[in-house]
């Protein structure tokens, strides 16, 4: 189980594409799978652009392959090698030889369980099945498989190639071996690991999402404008992004799904999602990935002056 050479990544959106990039750059052979061919095309383009950007900024180093630091002139070769190791598919069977599969599809328990059931049937018996879920119970996802001891949460932060943290979540039956192999893999990717018990939202989103939800309530009840809410939290509490900007970056659909998991899983009314957050998602205003969320990104790349609130 310990010798990870081949990885499957399911879901080629913001997170899956970043995880696939990270793995390819660190020397793994990667199959990136999505049911939507357009998502795979977008992912290929964004991975290629991201690798070239990292190379040009000098952030991509051969250290990732456990060799000594590359001299600057060698960086392009690292990028080309990584792109060669990455292949895209819509056929689940292509993941059958993977040593580990990381799932990064829609934040829905039913959809994830169906996928894990299929992965359990087609992957080799020793493979680890990891979920990048932001909030959903690993124990329940694992119950859709015949190998719950090899199912684990491997929660990367957005964007995975840049953010330093991986939150590892052990389900009720996750084995020590699965945990140790997963931790070693995250560390091979240069990440710092934290470990959470399997309770809704784990550590990071248990704390972050209620804050984002509260920012929506502040906007909804007219406490302040979105710009003042974000500026207040940036300059007043030293956060690099305001909570509403961050929600747009994460995806309002993802934020709403997480609030619903917290609300259902922890049973406290304080986790009820803000009606304005629900309304934005209903209107398709899910954030940067769709060009509009709390802010409008259609014409400019930075948050713009307000259009009216929905
Ligand atoms: N966005 C974030 O900041 C963030 C951070 C950490 C974790 N996550 C988690 O990562 C997961 C993915 O989030 P995202 O932001 O990348 O979402 P996204 O909407 O950008 O991408 C999801 C992708 O999954 C694909 N997909 C959906 N169902 C599928 C299936 N059954 N099989 C194959 N592909 C399928 C979709 O076509 C889409 O391309 C979620 O569980 C989310 O909670 C998100």
TrEMBL record:
Transmembrane domains' residue ranges: none
Binding site residues for CoA: 50, 57, 134
Residue span, 3-hydroxyacyl-CoA dehydrogenase NAD binding domain: 7-198
Amino acids binding NAD(+): 11-16, 34, 107, 112, 134, 158, 289
Pathway: Lipid metabolism; fatty acid beta-oxidation
SUPFAM superfamilies in the record: 6-phosphogluconate dehydrogenase C-terminal domain-like, NAD(P)-binding Rossmann-fold domains
Domain named 3-hydroxyacyl-CoA dehydrogenase C-terminal: residues: 201-297
Oxidoreductase recorded as keyword: yes
Record GO biological process: fatty acid metabolic process
Record-annotated site: Important for catalytic activity: 155
One GO MF term attached to the UniProt entry: enoyl-CoA hydratase activity
Keywords annotated in UniProt: NAD, Oxidoreductase
Catalysed reactions listed for this entry: a 4-saturated-(3S)-3-hydroxyacyl-CoA = a (3E)-enoyl-CoA + H2O; a (3S)-3-hydroxyacyl-CoA = a (2E)-enoyl-CoA + H2O
InterPro entries: 3-OHacyl-CoA_DH (IPR022694), 3-OHacyl-CoA_DH_CS (IPR006180), 3-OHacyl-CoA_DH_NAD-bd (IPR006176), 3HC_DH_C (IPR006108), 6-PGluconate_DH-like_C_sf (IPR008927), 6PGD_dom2 (IPR013328), NAD(P)-bd_dom_sf (IPR036291)
Family the UniProt entry places it in: Belongs to the 3-hydroxyacyl-CoA dehydrogenase family. In the central section; belongs to the 3-hydroxyacyl-CoA dehydrogenase family.
The protein's name: 3-hydroxyacyl-CoA dehydrogenase
Organism (species): Trema orientale (Charcoal tree)
């Amino acid at each position: 189980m310990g010798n990870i050479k081949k990885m499957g990544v399911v879901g080629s959106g913001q997170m899956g594409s970043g995880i696939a990039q990270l793995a390819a750059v660190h020397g793994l052979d990667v199959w990136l799978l999505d049911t939507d061919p357009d998502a795979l095309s977008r992912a290929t383009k964004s991975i290629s652009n991201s690798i070239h950007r990292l190379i040009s900024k000098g952030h991509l180093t051969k250290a990732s392959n456990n060799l000594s630091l590359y001299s600057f002139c060698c960086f392009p070769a690292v990028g080309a090698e990584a792109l060669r190791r990455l292949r895209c598919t819509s056929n689940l069977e292509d993941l059958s030889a993977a040593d580990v599969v990381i799932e990064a599809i829609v934040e829905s328990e039913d959809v994830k369980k169906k996928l894990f059931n299929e992965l359990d049937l087609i992957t080799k018996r020793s493979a680890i099945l990891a979920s990048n879920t932001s909030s959903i119970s690993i124990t329940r996802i694992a119950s859709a498989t015949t190998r719950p001891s090899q199912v684990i949460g491997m929660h990367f932060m957005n964007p995975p190639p840049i953010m330093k943290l991986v939150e590892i979540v052990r389900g009720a039956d996750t084995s020590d071996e699965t945990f140790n192999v997963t931790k070693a893999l995250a560390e091979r990717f240069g990440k710092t690991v934290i470990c959470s018990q399997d309770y809704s939202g784990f550590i990071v989103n248990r704390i972050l999402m209620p804050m984002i939800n509260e920012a929506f309530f502040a906007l909804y009840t007219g406490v302040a404008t979105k710009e003042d809410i974000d500026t207040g939290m940036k300059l007043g509490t030293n956060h690099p992004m305001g909570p509403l900007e961050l929600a747009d970056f994460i995806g309002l659909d993802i934020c709403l799904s997480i609030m619903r998991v917290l609300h259902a899983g922890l049973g406290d009314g304080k986790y009820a999602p803000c009606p304005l957050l629900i309304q934005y998602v209903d209107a398709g205003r899910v954030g940067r990935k769709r060009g509009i969320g709390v802010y409008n990104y259609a014409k400019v790349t930075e948050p713009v002056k307000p259009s009216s609130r929905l």
